[in-house]
Design brief:
The complex is a heterodimer of chains A (204) and B (191). Chain A has 204 residues and is mainly alpha-helical. Chain A has helices at 2-10, 25-30, 35-59, 68-90, 92-98, 109-119, 124-154, 181-198; strands at 156-159, 162-166. In chain A, a hairpin with a 2-residue loop joins strand 1 (156-159) and strand 2. Chain B has one domain (27-185). The chains are: A mainly alpha (204), B mainly alpha (191).
Chain lengths: 204, 191
């Protein structure tokens, strides 16, 4: 049980996929222009990572050597297809705004990385802990970036149509730079520097 | 002809894969520390992009669309790319070992490079013809190479500059990317 908690909690801070390992950066930057997109993306990633880690951990005794990586890729691609079909059917608006980044979860280095580095070497329960921890760490990171970008870029924060709050001055003069691609790099770079300054993440 | 030029410029500059579409960021931040590595990597990526587009186009238009099985494209594309990378790796290893020692390690990384997969998805989504797909792959590769080489030049200078400890490495690379992204947003609306 202690081991389970240890594997679960490491993804949240110590080896946070975005801020520490710098894996899965493409979606972290591309879909963080709004909070809705970030939540949709992290939900999809969580489903794919959890399912692929579980399946990889279960079939671990029969898959080895050179067929390992192709097997993992097919497993991940299957779950990605499932998640895109579900999104397309039930939340088409989110499906449209995530665009090609939804099928691109397949090449998210974080998911293949966890399958190869963790799930293929550990038993099922630990692999579930790892997947949950890593995907919650991923979610925390991209939701944080999205909140910053949407708040500064539009002066308000909305959550699936409900306005959570509106800032007085920024509302009329939003820093629209943060909605541009450049703003994504700026936000994540400054966040990373601040986390390092506070000692949450080790320096290089 | 002007259409093809528009696609090329659109993919290379206006919708630059790294700075505007955020594809291929792992090699962008991972391999861009030295100029020579960055150049080798971008050549390898461009080559794989061209090959992947050339193979996925007929598969999409002659197999997936007639069979009404477009939902399989994620699985099919990633398999094609992974197989292709393996074949190219083996081919180069057997025929030209000096080239293999220069490009080898980058090829292995390319399978999980979202830029390659991204090109094939964009080609399908935009409904490009075969020639247009090839031009778009070439443009995407060129744009990727351009920013990778620019970035590595800047990072070589950053290595010897005085920075606060917490900014060293990745954070400052992100800020440089932000400035480059702003510069590239000037291309918007060019075509």
């Amino acid at each position: 049980m202690i081991k389970w908690i240890k594997e679960f909690s490491k993804g949240l801070v110590v080896s946070n996929p975005i801020f520490v390992l710098a894996l899965g950066l493409c979606p972290a930057l591309a879909v963080t222009n709004t909070l809705d997109n970030a939540i949709g993306m992290s939900g999809a990633v969580m489903f794919v990572l959890l399912c692929s880690n579980m399946l990889v951990a279960v079939i671990r005794p029969w898959v080895s050597g050179i067929v390992r990586i192709p097997t993992f890729i097919v497993i991940i691609a299957t779950f990605v297809t499932i998640v895109s079909l579900v999104f397309q059917a039930y939340i088409p608006a989110l499906y449209e705004s995530l665009g090609i980044y939804l099928p691109l979860i397949v090449v998210n280095c974080m998911i293949l990385g966890r399958a190869e580095a963790f799930a293929s070497r550990n038993k099922l329960s630990l692999s579930i802990a790892d997947a949950l921890g890593m995907s919650l760490g991923f979610m925390a990171a991209i939701v944080l970036i999205a909140v910053i970008r949407e708040t500064l870029g539009t002066g308000a924060l909305t959550f699936f149509g409900i306005t959570l709050f509106t800032l007085p001055v920024l509302d009329e003069q939003p820093v629209s730079l943060f909605l541009l691609p450049a703003g994504a790099f700026l936000a994540i770079g400054l966040l990373l520097a601040v986390f390092r300054k506070w000692g949450l993440i080790k320096n290089d | 002809m002007t259409d093809l030029l528009a696609i090329f410029i659109g993919m290379a500059l206006i919708n630059n894969f790294v700075l505007v579409k955020f594809l291929g960021l792992c090699p962008f931040f991972g391999v861009s520390k030295k100029l020579t590595n960055a150049f080798s990597m971008s050549m390898a990526v461009t080559f794989v992009m061209l090959m992947a587009s050339a193979v996925t186009w007929p598969i999409t238009h002659y197999i997936l669309i007639p069979l009404d099985a477009e939902y399989l494209r994620t699985v099919v594309y990633i398999l094609v790319i992974a197989t292709l990378v393996q074949i190219i790796e083996l081919f180069i290893m057997r025929t030209n070992y000096s080239l293999y020692s220069a490009f080898g390690i980058y090829l292995a990384l390319i399978t999980t490079n979202c830029a390659v997969m991204g090109v094939t998805l964009v080609n399908t989504d935009e409904g490009f013809t075969f020639v247009e797909s090839m031009v778009s792959a070439l443009g995407a590769g060129t744009g990727f190479g351009l920013v990778l080489v620019l970035m590595s030049g800047i990072r070589e200078r950053l290595e010897i500059s005085q920075l606060p400890d917490s900014m060293k490495g990745l954070p400052v690379a992100f800020l440089v990317a932000a400035l480059m992204g702003l510069a590239f947003s000037g291309f918007a609306g060019m075509v």
